Amino acid sequence: MTSTTPIALGLMGMSDMYGPADDAESIATIHAALDAGVTFLDTGDFYGMGRNELLLGEALRSGGIDRDAVTISVKFGAQRGPDGAWIGYDARPAAVKTALAYTLNRLGTDHVDVYRPARLDPAVPIEETVGAIAELVAAGYVRSAGLSEVGADTIRRAAAVTPIADLQIEYSLMSRGLETEILPVTRELGIDITAYGVLSRGLLSGHWRADREVGATDFRARSPRFRGENLERNLALVETLRGVAEAQGATVAQVAIAWVAAQGRDIVPVIGARTRERLAEALGATEVQLDADALERIAAAVPAEEVAGDRYDEHSMAALDSER
């Protein structure tokens, strides 16, 4: 699951989680990404309760984009109330197929390239969920099965049912948990990684300030890494990284993205740029050349054990199969 460029575009922030966004600028950003050779586009049917898929569908139509020239990844299963509240997961086979029917309609396409449960449904064996995806692959509605935020055992169980093309999981200088058990398994089984959160929700962008106000609808208002002393400690790490980045002639964001991309050809960073300006900066990461010494200095600037706060709040962390 790769792009012409070694970067994918995540669309979540264009419709949800990070406060208001401008649809026109979002569509322009998608078009700019495609023009630059980014062909892997990631969305979820619960981002903005379907608005994100509608946005992507409009971007493809208005840009006259050849459907076969892009790879669309869709996550499903998260359940939300009318107020946007998170109320559980549903990855039963019937729900899998129903969700895809709505996704195809919103996107205005006849197939999804990678279809994956957003999280492991604790009430449904993963074999049943990916078995339903396998049936959709056989019917031509899906090209490949994927997974998201699951652990090594779940990956093996899923792969025993049907080929798994890709695992989407958070991976950054500040979140390296997959390295111990998960990455060895995906490499053994030939499963690619699309790494989201490569800038740790903006902490590693180099643009975040300690006094920045965060709106109530912004995910970061509840994120442990953005709170009080945790934020101060994390921003201190970013300043150390800034010195390393400047020595490379790059920005903080660029070296953070380039570091993830350099961890293996099977790993594609997913950037969540919501504007053309941020997209242009992120794409500059593809020009950053990192030798072994530079990679070591970048990793040493942000030691994983010194990052303050979990990547999600306590309730969300408990729901992550990848953290068990």
UniProtKB/TrEMBL annotation:
This protein's record includes keyword Oxidoreductase: yes
Family annotation (Pfam families): Aldo_ket_red (PF00248)
Superkingdom, natural source: Bacteria
Residue ranges constituting the NADP-dependent oxidoreductase domain according to the UniProt record: 6-301
Assigned keywords, A-Z: Oxidoreductase
Protein name: Aldo/keto reductase
Organism of derivation: Patulibacter brassicae
